[in-house]
Each structure stands twice: as structure tokens, then as C-alpha cells.
Design goal:
- The protein is an alpha/beta fold.
- The chain is built from seven helices and 19 strands.
- The structure holds NADPH dihydro-nicotinamide-adenine-dinucleotide phosphate.
Length: about 325
């Protein structure tokens, strides 16, 4: 991705806003719970926020079915409905919601320059990054075939639908260990599908897995297909792939959970914004502030730990309040 060279920003009178270049107080990039909540707060604080929704308007929740753990909805709500409500609430206070994706940035000076869809330029006094994270998938065709019908990348979101049933979790890291132990509390049996003969998870998490009687680890197994008539009924695995003992194994399950990592959507900011080695944007602890004053971050792009809609929304609120205070101090 091209990163633009530092811009020469002139005085306001010398640089009129044109159709291709627009100057605003607060730009929010991303339209998940973090972005919309930031917009609600920023709009109510008169920052006249503009949101660019990104490619997936509404974010990861638009691909889930029922959301039963977002506070305030005792009967639950569907992911798309929740996001539609958040969008309407942001709009009600005057947020300018636009379809488009940030494709390049120059954060070397204020106002910050953000290019939208490679054509339009936004000059923003403050930027709230809420671009989210994308769950990694194995890349097998069956994941698409059974999307929403037994395949999930979030045990906390979807585990409840598999109570009393048998499920499999793919991965051997902390996320997989955490999700497997969470699911073990709900499900009859949890298989962990691990491609090597050891877990990557921390020793403490490994111990929790080993101490949970209804988790069975399938060492050196790799999922290659899923089967079932009206949803997932089983998984096809290769055991000890590439060795003389290689064999195909089939296991009956009702749910197939991916836990092989997430990719935070921070690439276009990486020349300016500090991230951890995985790409999660670093914040000044307890705030939404990044290493650049005036640039704030909220939601999954800065959160390797919780990744819940409600925590994303909470951090969106923090980012808008931080942006408002920053502008007030200028
Ligand atoms: P990790 O990258 O740590 O682990 C990914 C796991 O998935 C590994 O076991 C890896 O196998 C496996 N994997 C990756 N690709 C494939 C594939 N194509 N097929 C099969 N298996 C695959 O990701 P996590 O999401 O678990 O963790 C990310 C970060 O967040 C880590 O730093 C972790 O410590 C942290 N975290 C911390 C938590 C906590 O402290 N409570 C909770 C959750 C995450 P292999 O080992 O062979 O590479």
C-alpha cells in the first residue's frame, strides 16, 4: 500500500475545501460497534464526525446470527439488527456516514491526511481508528459452505448454541485453549484439533486444557473438510500428514470453531502508528491514545484479549471523549 509523503498543509484560507479534499474535525474509520459508538459520542459533542464504513459495513457482527450477550437486549438481537440500530443512533445525532474505505494515510502532521478509495482526500483534526480485526480461516472450501451453519470463529458469541453437543476447536494457541475451556463448560465434548504435537498456548492455559476432562486433544491433525446435510455433522481430518502413518479420520461434531488467530486491520497505519508484533495498535494504558497525539483507536484493532462487541463499544466511547478533550485543549 502506498504511504503518502508528508503534505505541505497551508493556512485554511489558502487551502479551500474542494470536492476531492475535505477538512473535518473528526474522522472515524470503521463501522463496527467501536466506530458507531465513537460516532454517537463525537456527534453529541458537536465534533460533526464523518464515518467511512470500510468494505464490511457494520463489521464482524453482520456475519453472526444471534447476539445474546450485548447488555440491554434481554431477548437477544441479531448481529445485523444490532448494527442497524447503532447506525441509526449515530445518524440521529448528525453523523455523516459514508461508504468507502481508507486506502492510505499521512499522519506526519496535522491535520492528518487520509485517502478514501484512492481518490478522495480527507484532512482531519482528529482520527479515530476503528478498523477491527479479521478472524483467520483455514481456507478450505467447507468453511464457506457451512458459514453460519456450524462454522464459527467466536466461541463466546456462538458457543451457547451448542450446549450439550460435541464441537471441535482448531488451533493450539491461547485463543484456542481459552475457547476450548469455555466451550467445555457448555458442550458435552470438545475436540482440539492441533497441527503439531505441542500447544503454543501459555503453560497456565495448557494446564487448564489438560485439567478439563471433556476436552480431547487431537495432536498432529489437520482439518480438510466438513460434512453434513443441514449443517455441520462432522469433520474430516488428516492425521500425521506427510508421514508413513498418515491417515484420514472422521469425527462427528455439531460445531466447528476456528481459533487460529486474528489479523488486526492496521496495515495502512503501520508507518506511523505503533503496534505490537502481531499488528495490534498500542495505546497509552487506560486511554484510547496512540503514539500520535490526535489519533485515537478503539475496538478489536487494539484488543487482542477481549474482542467483544460491548468492549469495542466501550472503547469507542473512550476514543470520542479523548478526541473531544484533545480538540478542546488545542
Ligand atoms: P496464536 O498465533 O498464538 O496461535 C495460533 C494457533 O493456531 C497456533 O497453535 C497455530 O499453530 C495454529 N494455527 C495457525 N494457523 C493454522 C492452520 N492453518 N492450521 C492449523 N492450525 C493453525 O494466536 P492466538 O489467537 O491464540 O493468540 C494471539 C495472541 O493473543 C497471542 O499472543 C496470545 O498469547 C494472545 N492471547 C492471550 C490471551 C490471554 O492472555 N488470556 C487469550 C487469547 C490470546 P502452530 O502453533 O503450529 O503455529
Amino acid at each position: 500500500m502506498e504511504i503518502f509523503k508528508p503534505l505541505e498543509i497551508k493556512g485554511e484560507s489558502e487551502k479551500p475545501t474542494t470536492e476531492a479534499t475535505e477538512k473535518i474535525k473528526c474522522l472515524i474509520i470503521g463501522s463496527g460497534p467501536a466506530g458507531y459508538t465513537a460516532a454517537i459520542y463525537a456527534a453529541r459533542a458537536n465534533l460533526h464526525p464523518v464515518i467511512y464504513t470500510g468494505m464490511e459495513m457494520g463489521g464482524q457482527l453482520t456475519t453472526t446470527t444471534d447476539v445474546e450477550n450485548f447488555p440491554g437486549f434481554p431477548e437477544g438481537i441479531t448481529g445485523p439488527e444490532l448494527m442497524e440500530n447503532l447506525r441509526k443512533q449515530a445518524e440521529r445525532f448528525g453523523t455523516d456516514i459514508r461508504i468507502g474505505a481508507a486506502t492510505a494515510v499521512d499522519f506526519s502532521q496535522r491535520p492528518f491526511k487520509v485517502i478514501i478509495d484512492e481518490t478522495k482526500t480527507i484532512l482531519a483534526e482528529t482520527v479515530i481508528i476503528a478498523t477491527g480485526a479479521t478472524a483467520k480461516y483455514l481456507g478450505i472450501e467447507a468453511e464457506k459452505r457451512y458459514a453460519g451453519r456450524g462454522v464459527s470463529a467466536c466461541a463466546t458469541c456462538d458457543g451457547y448454541f451448542y450446549r450439550g453437543k460435541d464441537v471441535a476447536v482448531v488451533g493450539g494457541g491461547d485463543t484456542a485453549a481459552e475457547e476450548a475451556t469455555y466451550l467445555a463448560g457448555l458442550c458435552r465434548k470438545v475436540y482440539m484439533i492441533v497441527r503439531r504435537n505441542e500447544l503454543r498456548a501459555s503453560k497456565a492455559m495448557q494446564q487448564r486444557v489438560f485439567n478439563t476432562p471433556n476436552i480431547e486433544i487431537l495432536w498432529e491433525h489437520q482439518a480438510i473438510d466438513l460434512y453434513g446435510e443441514n449443517g455441520v455433522e462432522g469433520v474430516v481430518l488428516v492425521k500425521k500428514k506427510g508421514t508413513p502413518e498418515e491417515e484420514i479420520v472422521k469425527i462427528s461434531i455439531d460445531g466447528f470453531f476456528l481459533a487460529i488467530g486474528h489479523k488486526p486491520n492496521s496495515e495502512i497505519f503501520s508507518n506511523y502508528i505503533e503496534t505490537d508484533p502481531v499488528g495490534y495498535i498500542k495505546t497509552i494504558p487506560g486511554t484510547s491514545k496512540t503514539n500520535i497525539p490526535g489519533i485515537f483507536v478503539a475496538g478489536d484493532v487494539q484488543d487482542p484479549h477481549y474482542r467483544q462487541a460491548v468492549t469495542a463499544a466501550g472503547s469507542g466511547c473512550m476514543a470520542a471523549i479523548d478526541a473531544e478533550r484533545f480538540l478542546a485543549e488545542q
